[in-house]
Amino acid sequence: MTNQQPPRDAETAEQHKRSIRSFVLRQGHMTAAQQRAIDTLWPQFGLDYQTEPVDLNAAFGRNNPKVLEIGFGMGVATVEIAKRLPQTDFLAIDVHGPGVGNILKLIGEENVANIRVMRHDAVEVVENMLADGSLNGIHIFFPDPWHKKRHNKRRLIQTPFVAKLLPKLKAGGYIHLATDWEEYAAQMLEVLSGFDSLQNTAAAYAPTPDYRPETKFEARGKRLGHGVWDLVFVRKD
Questions:
Q1: Which reaction does it catalyse (predicted)?
Q2: Does residue 69 have a known ligand-binding role?
Q3: pTM of structure
Q4: In CATH, what class is 10-235?
C-alpha cells in the first residue's frame, strides 16, 4: 500500500494524488475452486470498475445501509461480518486474485447475498465510483503496517487518503480501522484525530465491536505477543 503524508492542505494533497495506492500487487496461486467461483459467481456478486458513480442500491437490489471494506484478504472475516449484519450491504474491494476467488467461494458456500466484490484499486473506486454521502461505514482491517521506518510512507492510513474517504460518508457514518501494530495504531489515531469532521467514539482506542470477528492476522499478532487496536470514528453532522 503506497501513499505519502504531506501537510494537511488541499494543494499538497492534490500534488500527491497520483501516488496514493490502496495496495501492493501480490501474486498467488489460484486454486481450481477459487477460479470456479470467479467463473460462476462473478456475474451475480462481482462489480466491475467504471469511471462514473455506481448506483449501490441497484447493485444490491435494495435500499439498505452500505459499508465499504478495503482489503478483505481471503474474505473470511468479511463474510462473517455480512452474516452477522444481514441488513447491511458490503462493497468489498481487494486486488489479490486468490482472495477474490476465495471470498466468492465463501459467498456461495455460506449463501450470503449482501456482499458485492470488486478487484480494483480502491483509491480509483473511491474517486470515481462512489458518490458523496453514499456510505454508512468504512472498514479497513489490518492493512499492511510497513513496519520498517523507511517504508512508513507506504502505509494506507495517511491524511490524503482519509481525506478522499470522508466525503463519501453520510453524516453519522463511521470509519472503523484495526491493526495489530502499535506504532501504526498511534499513527491511525493521529491521522483520524486531525479531521475536525470526525469524532472519536472512545477516549483513544475503541472496544472491538461485536460484529468484527477475530481475523487470521489478529490471531497471528496475538501469538506474537502483539496487542490489537480498534479505532471507530464517526462523521459529525
A1: guanosine(46) in tRNA + S-adenosyl-L-methionine = N(7)-methylguanosine(46) in tRNA + S-adenosyl-L-homocysteine
A2: yes
A3: 0.86
A4: alpha beta
